[in-house]
Specification:
Elements: E1 2-7, E2 20-25, E3 37-43, H1 57-65, E4 69-74, H2 87-101, E5 108-118, H3 120-131, H4 137-141, H5 145-148, E6 152-156, H6 162-170, H7 187-199, H8 205-210, H9 213-216, E7 224-229, H10 238-250, E8 254-259, H11 277-286, H12 289-299
Parallel strand pairs: 3-4, 3-5, 5-6, 6-7, 7-8
Antiparallel strand pairs: 1-2, 2-4
Helix pairs in contact: 2-3, 6-7
Length: 302
């Protein structure tokens, strides 16, 4: 196995373009050293504040074991730079075009490149998958639209509609209480400011609707595999149901799994991402998702 980390936009990361990526490559097969592999670009979650590590390398190793070359993207977050939309999406677009540009060196089939995103990373993947042609992402990456189009998208307990997230957070009866050490701001103020930072504009219904993937997808959207849990308190499962309806109306091949329990943030739900007994019990419920997703990708030829 070969593991390498590179700057995404140039020789070194910069404050303006801090994104990096880590490549996980299978060793060449002795009898077929030039054989091409499918690839998957992995985006962990973290609410755009940071990236959850347990949704990076454990996922990469799981896909590597299934024959994929894997690219883990450390897209821009609030911890590293300006996260305002569409900066993270531009990072993913650049990553997709980079994989295809250097496909031969990495022994990747450029016609079989999927994305896999968790939580906030799922939002980024869904945005690029829906808007690869119509959105600003290709131009920002200096690429052709077809070079940034995922051949399939795997979306894991994804954020899909920031309006649903906002309404869920603001539904807390304590939301209008002042929060200590914030200069008198309330919980409502903090939620709206957080959304505005990610959006790069005031978090109005109109602005949030404009970046909601279900509102921009059409028949050009690649096949999608989506899963979540009915008790997810971070990304309410209604987002998945609404998104699945949009996929169906657009005629996009898709597969959707809603597990009755499991909560949020379970990654591949195996020993590499489980840290205690309670976590293990929840993980056992959703663990089938990875086999199901790999089977779906295989049926799509990815």
């Amino acid at each position: 196995m070969i593991i390498e980390t590179h700057a995404l936009w140039g020789e070194e990361p910069t404050p303006e373009q801090p994104a990096t990526y880590t490549v996980y490559l299978a060793d060449p097969l002795p009898k077929a050293p030039d054989a091409l592999h499918p690839a998957v670009v992995v985006l962990g979650g973290g609410g755009f504040h940071r990236i959850a590590r347990h949704e990076q390398e454990p996922v990469a190793l799981a896909f590597l074991a299934r024959g994929y070359q894997v690219f883990v993207l450390d897209y821009v977050t609030e911890a590293t730079g300006d996260v305002a939309y569409p900066a993270p999406e531009a990072d993913l677009a650049k990553m997709m075009s980079t994989v295809r540009r250097d496909a031969a060196a990495w022994r990747v089939d450029p016609a079989r490149v999927a994305v896999c995103g968790f939580s906030a990373g799922g939002f980024i993947c869904a945005s690029v998958a829906a808007g690869w042609k119509s959105g600003p992402f290709a131009a920002l990456a200096g690429a052709r639209p077809e070079d940034i189009r995922p051949d399939a998208a795997v979306l894991c307990y994804p954020l899909l509609d920031p309006r649903v997230y906002r309404d869920k957070m603001l539904d807390d009866p304590r939301i209008d209480l002042r929060v200590p050490k914030t200069g008198g701001k309330t919980g409502r103020d903090l939620v709206m400011e957080d959304l505005a930072r990610v959006l790069g504009a005031e978090a109005t219904d109109e602005n949030l609707a404009a970046v909601t993937p279900a509102n921009i997808l059409d028949q050009r959207m690649p096949p999608a595999f989506v899963w979540g849990t009915s008790d997810d308190k971070t990304c309410p499962i209604v987002e998945v149901h609404d998104y699945a309806r949009a996929l169906a109306l657009a005629g996009v091949p898709h597969e959707v799994h809603v597990f009755d329990r499991g909560g949020h943030g379970l990654s591949v739900a195996n020993a590499t991402s489980v840290h205690d007994e309670e976590h293990a019990e929840r993980a056992a419920v959703v663990a089938p998702w990875f086999d199901l997703a790999c089977a779906f990708l295989a049926r799509q030829g990815v």
